Automatic annotation (TrEMBL):
<keyword id="KW-1003">Cell membrane</keyword>
<dbReference type="InterPro" id="IPR015867">
    <property type="entry name" value="N-reg_PII/ATP_PRibTrfase_C"/>
</dbReference>
<dbReference type="InterPro" id="IPR019264">
    <property type="entry name" value="DUF2179"/>
</dbReference>
<keyword id="KW-1133">Transmembrane helix</keyword>
<keyword id="KW-0812">Transmembrane</keyword>
<dbReference type="InterPro" id="IPR051461">
    <property type="entry name" value="UPF0750_membrane"/>
</dbReference>
<feature type="transmembrane region" description="Helical">
    <location>
        <begin position="100"/>
        <end position="118"/>
    </location>
</feature>
<feature type="domain" description="DUF2179">
    <location>
        <begin position="214"/>
        <end position="267"/>
    </location>
</feature>
<dbReference type="Pfam" id="PF02588">
    <property type="entry name" value="YitT_membrane"/>
</dbReference>
<dbReference type="InterPro" id="IPR003740">
    <property type="entry name" value="YitT"/>
</dbReference>
<dbReference type="Pfam" id="PF10035">
    <property type="entry name" value="DUF2179"/>
</dbReference>
<dbReference type="GO" id="GO:0005886">
    <property type="term" value="C:plasma membrane"/>
</dbReference>
<feature type="transmembrane region" description="Helical">
    <location>
        <begin position="70"/>
        <end position="88"/>
    </location>
</feature>
<feature type="transmembrane region" description="Helical">
    <location>
        <begin position="38"/>
        <end position="63"/>
    </location>
</feature>
<keyword id="KW-0472">Membrane</keyword>
<protein>
    <submittedName>
        <fullName>Uncharacterized membrane-anchored protein YitT, contains DUF161 and DUF2179 domains</fullName>
    </submittedName>
</protein>
Length: 276
């Protein structure tokens, strides 16, 4: 039930972005919706009609390479998207004077919609189906192939909606990706930091005292010097990163620090402190 609600909310948001901001302002998309929009801009066929047709064609080519649960959810998603577009297109939307504003908010709403859709394990992308076929048949990288196919759709848009609208489309896609990452990873983002220093014990004490946090200790050996060193590993909220780096530099200006983006943190975590 929860996944169904996520799909409905996410698809409605996506349909709103496409019908109210994308279509009136000649902004396209990636995937099969992007192809459907280019068909709409080129010959006037509504995405509510072309999207399910394109999806069925792609699905017939790649259904044996897709998990059944994904097929069922995506079919539901595509049908729902087409219904929403059919209802929404042409009812309320008008071209905006500032196309940049339309592109930005189309990206924000699309990203939020995709965040809900992906959390439910569904998709309306379509190009991922082709990517899975090429991955199985030719060994092509799944993520890179999907990205290349989406880029190809956008490039074709140059010849249909023109270079300016294509650049607005790129802005929409970029903002959409950023917002999707926020929805999936949460706004309370965290960073993972590895610290290598001769003064690691002093750094660990300062982290405990100044940041009310803690660190996990690993032992590593440098290939060049052949010296064993303590390696501190700590996960902190992003807003504490600058304070942490300041503490480290105060103890050891020559400390080696590596910062990683963390997509998700769960289990063994108390108020930002890894449980040792």
């Amino acid at each position: 039930m929860k996944n169904t609600m996520y799909i409905i909310i996410g698809t409605l948001l996506f349909a709103l972005a496409v019908s109210q901001l994308g279509m009136p302002n000649s902004i396209a998309e990636g995937g099969i919706v992007g192809i459907a929009l280019l068909i709409y801009y080129g010959i006037g066929i509504s995405p509510s009609i072309s999207t399910p047709i394109i999806f069925v064609i792609l699905l017939s080519l790649g259904i044996r390479y897709l998990p059944r649960h994904m097929v069922y959810k995506t079919v539901f998603n595509v049908i729902l998207f087409s219904v929403f577009i059919r209802f929404l297109e042409g009812r309320f939307a008008q071209p905006m004077e500032d196309t940049m504003l339309a592109a930005v908010f189309a990206g924000i709403i699309t990203g939020a919609g995709f965040g809900f859709i992906y959390q439910a394990g569904s998709s309306v992308g379509g190009t991922s189906i082709i990517a899975r076929v090429l991955n199985r048949q030719l060994g092509w990288d799944l993520t890179g192939t999907t990205l290349a196919l989406d880029a190809a759709v956008v490039i074709v848009g140059i010849f249909i909606i023109g270079p300016v609208s294509t650049m607005y489309t790129l802005i929409t896609l970029y903002i959409g990706k950023v917002v999707t990452d926020f929805v999936l990873g949460g706004f309370d983002s965290k960073k993972a930091i590895n610290i290598v220093s001769k003064h690691s014990e002093d750094i660990s004490k300062r982290i405990t005292h100044d940041l009310a946090s803690s660190a996990t200790v690993f032992y590593g050996e440098g290939e060049y010097m052949r010296e064993q060193r303590r390696v501190l590993y700590i996960v902190v909220h992003t807003h504490k990163l600058l304070q942490l780096k300041r503490v480290i530099k105060e103890v050891d200006p020559d400390a080696f620090i590596v910062v990683h983006n963390v997509k998700d943190v769960s289990g063994g975590f108390i108020s930002g402190v890894p449980v040792e």
